[in-house]
Amino acid sequence: MRNNSKSNLKKQQRGSLARKEAQLAGILITPTILIVFGLILFPAFFSIWVSFHDVSLRNLNDVFNAPFVGFDNYVRVFNDFAFKYQGAESWGAAVTSIVYSFASTILTMIIGLIASLLLNQKFRLRGLARSIFLAPYVAPIVSVAFVWRWILDPRPSGVLNDILMRLGLIDLPKAYLATRGLALLLMIIFQAWRYFPFAMLMILARLQAVDGTLYEAAEVDGANTWQKFLHITIPELRYVLGAIFLLRLIWTFNKFDDIYLLTNGGFGTNVLPVLTYQFSFKLFNFGVGAAAAMILLVVLAIFMAFYIGIVMKKIED
Amino acid sequence: MNTERLTIIEHLMRWLNLKRLIFAIVLSFFLISVVFPFYWMVSSSFKSYAEIGGRQAVYIPSALRLDAYGELFDPNNPAFQDFLANIINTIKVAVPTSLIAVFLSILGSYAIARLHFRGKNLLLNGVLLVYLFPGVLLIIPLFAMLARIGDAVGFNIQDNLAVLVLTYLAQTLPVALYMLTNYFRTIPDEIEQAALIDGCSRFQVMWRITLPLAVPALVSVGIYTFMIAWNEFLYAMVFLNDHNLFTMPLKISTIFNDPDPRPHVVMAASTIMTIPIILLFLLMERYLEEGLTAGGVKG
After folding, report:
1. Checking CA distances to A149, which of A24, A73, A264, B28 falls within 20 to 30 Å?
2. Smallest Cα distance from B102 to chain A, Å
3. pLDDT digit string (tens) for B127-161?
4. A109-165, pLDDT tens digit by residue?
């Protein structure tokens, strides 16, 4: 009976290749769909739900019956001293996140652009230099973060202290990552150091596709190197620069590991992802944590709408 | 004598025009900034406790001392860390993540690239959304959800490496799917169509034609997912409490935060964690570079 219906089914399928394909596609794609929907899309929407409910360690095993609290979690985030701007001395995570992300992104792009212009020159061992340049981006974040902490170590054996003292620039060892302002600046420099290879590779690919006759024509017209850069290279790169800016801004804004590992979010470097973690897994208030994450997402969406609506449009004109 | 010196200087001057000078300075600056932290990591790992905590920084260790490595691996060392267990834990998480992600993304990407079905675009866009989602956003609902499910089915979500693999799949599968789909689309459909007409089944076509052609992409997806799992910190920190199950990143962080700071041990552990990744990358650079700009390393 079963065999019969199976062979019937097969006959029908032969008649309709499209249906057979759809069935096969169904089989192939099911595990992926289960994971993508179950572990990404559903949790993403579930976190909106969590942000409106009182979820903590106490009722975690009965999370679907958590009491609805409206916007209470959001109000708590907005009133939290770690979140809100309280003057130039204490920026709060919202403002710090924005400053940190924009500054890191711009610096990463500038360094990446310079690196790509370097590697676009012909010189011996260029391939080796290119491989070496990729190291900060490829190496594990935990390793490089702790190397930086060790280089910036407040003790006299910290190498930056040692160098600056030998040069006579400072008299006593400094605690760089425990100094407000300086810590944030160092985080931005760290971001540029670690992520410039991403910008470099993307720009380099585009540079190598630029039509060489453009430069020759400009030379005939008497343009110098700077003019060629300004009037040929930059316009040719505008799309790729736009794409890098958007991607890096999003990823830097979302980034948790780098700041958590380097400063633990202390000394004026607390950003929204770290704050979200602290609410959820230090205070174990998942509702407030989810609300902070939603705020992060909304800010991100505003950036993107603004960027795609205005900046990209301008580039196209 | 005098004339010879002049010609050398002249020669140097001719070679050292302004453009070259700037180029050399900028290139050196880049090389030093990139290489120095790595030099400092490896060289510090060979220093003694006295060299690490002295009144001055030691630039070249006096000898290749294995004090730090002894602390990591030698059971007779008073401060034995059993780092081997952490390496094994990391491999236990990274290898299954990589293999399962490659296997599932082969199936999924093939379906997306070659077959027609409803909801395909929704799925692809859903996958791309992951690029925009912060990891911290997903970890809260995942933790709550898995805790609830684990409670109902009867497994512990904390200190369970299998759960960690599952959450890593959620992070790596979208990237794998995206990269492989793009690659499958570059393989001409005509070859497969011809094989289908010759009577091969879809699975035979996949196994004998598409996959052999896609080996470079499979290698690069496998390595990227492996690297993501190897390096992952946040999810491991949230899901693991038991020190015996710690992966390398957690262990390194634990040693670093020890009240008695021993940076040489941290650097030794970091060196061990970094070398396989750098080697893997250098050996496979040809396959991997394209993936870097395609977001293989998200972040």
Report:
1. B28
2. 11
3. 777 777 788 888 888 888 888 888 888 888 888 89
4. 999 999 999 998 888 888 899 999 999 999 999 999 999 999 998 888 888 888 888
Residue A11, Cβ density class (10 Å: 0-12 exposed, 13-18 middle, ≥19 buried): exposed
**Is-contact A191 A97, C-beta < 8 A?**
no
Residue given tokens 């390194």 in the structure block? B252
- DSSP code at position A68: B
List, in sequence order, every beta strand (DSSP E) within chain A. none
Whether the Cβ atoms of residue B49 and residue B61 lie closer than 8 Å to each other = no
B83-293 under CATH 1.10.3720.10, yes or no: yes
Contacts of A205 in chain B (CB under 8 A): 293
Tokens 């799992």 identify what position?
A: B229
Q: Among B140, B166, B266, whose Cβ lies nearest the Cβ of A150?
A: B266
Q: Which residues of A85-113 are buried (b: 16+ CB within 10 A; e: fewer)?
A: eeeeeebbbbebbbebbbbbbebbbebbb
Candidates B37, B135, B238; nearest CB to A281 = B238
For residue B175, give the chain A residue with the closest CA: A36
> Is B161 at the interface with chain A, CB within 8 A?
no
Contact (CB, 8 A) for A190 and A148: yes
* Homologous superfamily of the A88-316 domain (CATH): MetI-like (1.10.3720.10)
Q: What is the pLDDT of residues B87-104, one digit of tens each?
A: 999 999 999 999 999 999
Closest by CA position to A281, among listed B49, B248, B237:
B237
Q: Where are the alpha helices (DSSP H) in A66-208?
A: 72-79, 92-119, 126-138, 141-151, 159-166, 182-207
Interface confidence (ipTM) of the complex: 0.87
Sign, Cα dihedral of A247, A250, A253, A255: negative
- Residue of A39, A148, A151 lying closest to B167 (CB–CB): A39
Integer CA distances (angstroms), B77 to B51, B73, B81, B253, in order: 19, 8, 9, 20
| pLDDT tens column, A158-172 | 888 888 888 888 888
Q: Where are the domains of chain B?
A: 2-45, 83-293
Which residue of chain A comes nearest to B233, CA vs CA? A257
